[in-house]
Automatic annotation (TrEMBL):
<dbReference type="InterPro" id="IPR029045">
    <property type="entry name" value="ClpP/crotonase-like_dom_sf"/>
</dbReference>
<comment type="function">
    <text>Hydrolyzes 3-hydroxyisobutyryl-CoA (HIBYL-CoA), a saline catabolite. Has high activity toward isobutyryl-CoA. Could be an isobutyryl-CoA dehydrogenase that functions in valine catabolism.</text>
</comment>
<protein>
    <recommendedName>
        <fullName>3-hydroxyisobutyryl-CoA hydrolase</fullName>
        <ecNumber>3.1.2.4</ecNumber>
    </recommendedName>
</protein>
<dbReference type="GO" id="GO:0003860">
    <property type="term" value="F:3-hydroxyisobutyryl-CoA hydrolase activity"/>
</dbReference>
<dbReference type="Pfam" id="PF16113">
    <property type="entry name" value="ECH_2"/>
</dbReference>
<dbReference type="InterPro" id="IPR032259">
    <property type="entry name" value="HIBYL-CoA-H"/>
</dbReference>
<dbReference type="InterPro" id="IPR045004">
    <property type="entry name" value="ECH_dom"/>
</dbReference>
<keyword id="KW-0378">Hydrolase</keyword>
<comment type="pathway">
    <text>Amino-acid degradation; L-valine degradation.</text>
</comment>
<dbReference type="GO" id="GO:0006574">
    <property type="term" value="P:L-valine catabolic process"/>
</dbReference>
<feature type="domain" description="Enoyl-CoA hydratase/isomerase">
    <location>
        <begin position="1"/>
        <end position="317"/>
    </location>
</feature>
<comment type="similarity">
    <text>Belongs to the enoyl-CoA hydratase/isomerase family.</text>
</comment>
Length: 344
């Protein structure tokens, strides 16, 4: 599918007859993510380089989408997770709906939010990106709009009408395309239980330097505040892979000052280290426990945060020591990533 999309995006950019691209899911969901269980199985069978090729093509596609010269409108129905976010959120227009569920749940799988997520999550308000990345938090359409991950919110029963209107467009002018989506768009109100109503706590806790300090700060909040949200967040962090949490936090922090291309190149190094499993094989254990056997009881190694030392984290950000390995080589492109604007 990635290869098919790469061919489409490459051909359509040169084709003057193509004015804009509409990306939508086939079926109930937009896309619940890449088939990481299949990747894990292929690595067992054919070695980690198979996985490296898979992610290389995926990240190249993410980069082309992020720097695309024509407007892409992504219609985000149902689940938009992991790789699904990669083929949509880097595009110009991201239309959330009343049934959208967004998440980057990778820390629970022994992976980290990849596909350039360290670029767009690090640009969310305050330290909200750290929260979404580490806790694998699920956001609804209203929250996506409010924090800037979505550019518009349209009720799902009006999406077909929106699509028909977009198909009549004979221009690549982003203001004209935006004007059409605006005619269908609404401003939903946030639910009382929304994590965005807890931004003060999120900023206080998730701004801490280390994962251990973030959890301690949340536990302090929990002792002073009877809020189910805090308890759920602590539980999510404690169930996640300790190695994943540490590399994810550093990834988001580095992403704040990097271009989308630099984020993808760094994430490619990280994902190659994850698949080689030199320090931790949590990715394979997470796939087993969550996706294959589904016992939802992963045995992480190392099992505790304090056992994941800074030197180990540092390794994930270094070049791979293999003469046949190359960094992610991205083509020269005209623009450098979208601005994720917060609508808060």
């Amino acid at each position: 599918m990635f290869m098919g999309l790469l061919r489409c995006f490459t051909a359509y950019e040169k084709d003057d007859g193509v004015k804009l691209l509409i990306m939508k899911g086939k079926g109930r969901a937009f896309c619940a993510g890449g088939d990481v269980a299949a990747v894990a199985r292929s690595i067992h069978k054919d070695g980690w380089k198979y996985g490296a090729d898979f992610f290389r093509n995926e990240f190249l596609l993410n980069y082309i989408i992020a720097t695309y010269t024509k407007p892409q409108v992504s219609l985000l129905t149902g689940n938009v997770m992991g790789g699904g976010a990669g083929v949509s959120l880097h595009g110009r227009f991201r239309v959330a709906t009343d049934n959208t569920v967004f998440a980057m749940p990778e820390t629970a799988l022994g992976l980290f939010p990849d596909i350039g997520a360290s670029y767009f999550l690090s640009r969310l308000p305050g330290f909200y990106g750290e929260y979404v990345a580490l806790a694998g938090a699920r956001l609804d359409g209203g929250e996506m709009l409010a924090c800037g991950l979505a550019t518009h919110f349209v009720q799902s029963n009006r999406l077909l009408l929106l699509e028909e209107s977009l198909k009549k467009v004979d221009t690549s002018n982003t203001f004209a395309v935006c004007g059409i989506i605006d005619q269908f768009a609404q401003q939903p109100s946030l639910k009382e239980s929304s994590s965005l109503n807890r931004l003060e706590i999120i900023n206080k806790c998730f701004s801490k330097r280390t994962v251990e300090e973030i959890i301690s700060a949340l536990e302090l909040e929990a002792s002073n505040l009877a809020d189910e949200w805090v308890a759920t967040t602590i539980q999510s962090l404690k169930k996640a892979s300790p190695t994943s949490l540490k590399i994810s936090l550093r990834s988001i922090r580095e992403g704040r000052t990097q271009t989308v291309g630099e984020c993808l190149q760094r994430e490619y190094r990280m994902v190659c280290h994850v698949m080689r499993g030199d320090f931790s094989r949590d990715f394979f254990e997470g796939c087993r426990a969550i996706l294959i056997d589904k016992d939802r009881n992963p045995k992480w190694m190392p099992p505790r945060l304090e056992q994941v030392h800074d030197e180990a984290v540092e390794q994930y950000f270094s070049r791979i020591d293999d003469p046949q390995w190359e960094d992610l080589n991205l083509p020269a492109r005209r623009s450098h990533g979208r601005n994720i604007e917060s609508k808060l």
